[in-house]
């Protein structure tokens, strides 16, 4: 029987790998015997993570500090992956703008599109093409419960996460016919440095990164999208299947306002 490494190895690329969910994905994949290509903005954090992964799991690790919203993402990722076979892509990087839409510069809103939409589409195309030609591989796109409906005070971020959900589900149907598994992880609030840096003013229940990652990897190859965690699954069911859409939008806006003031 094929192992996880047989199906999705020998190398995995994790974009947005230096902390939080990206770091947890890197550890989970290294524990499964995959060599790693790591992309993120902070060189010191990447260097420390790469050293830890190599020493702990004995896998090879390449890393590149870069802004995933830059126009040369395709070329730089291809150079990092030169000479290796990438069987799994995890796109975890995200940029968010919190607050009323018109109070933030247009450039900040467009950066959300560059990092959260252009980035995953670019890497899914580049590495998905090679996977489809080989007839095996996997793509994991991190999206969010925020992408289930409009998100007042998170308008561009929520829209970008809806893009990732729909992109992943479309690719699940297309690329599945060519042996490539695709899944969108619709994560809820998760205990990560990124969440902490958003400076929420109210405490809420958070999932740890590790169960989010493990549930996602177990679901890969079985369904087009996943909501990790029982409470998050219930919230998603209520927002999408039960509440009128206008009320779901109001609920999300109220929750965000309470969380951030």
What does this structure look like?
- The protein is of the alpha/beta class and 261 residues long.
- The protein has a single domain, classed as 3-Layer(aba) Sandwich (Rossmann fold).
- The chain contains 10 helices and 7 strands.
- Strands 3-2-1-4-5-6-7 form a 7-stranded parallel sheet, with helices on both faces.
- The chain is globular.
List keywords for this structure.
10 helices; Rossmann fold; alpha/beta; 261 residues
The gyration radius over C-alpha positions equals 18 Å
- How does the major sheet shape up? 7 strands, parallel
Second-tier CATH architecture: 3-Layer(aba) Sandwich
Helix content: 40-55%
CATH topology, anyone?
Rossmann fold
- Class derived from helix and strand content: alpha/beta
Q: State the order of secondary-structure elements, H for helix, E for strand.
A: HEHEHEHEHEHEHHEHH
Short characterization:
The chain is of the alpha/beta class and 261 residues long.
Q: What is the topology?
A:
Blueprint: H1 4-8, E1 11-15, H2 20-31, E2 35-40, H3 43-57, E3 61-65, H4 73-80, E4 86-91, H5 106-134, E5 137-144, H6 155-176, E6 180-187, H7 193-197, H8 209-219, E7 225-226, H9 230-242, H10 245-260
Helix pairs in contact: 2-3, 2-8, 4-5, 5-6
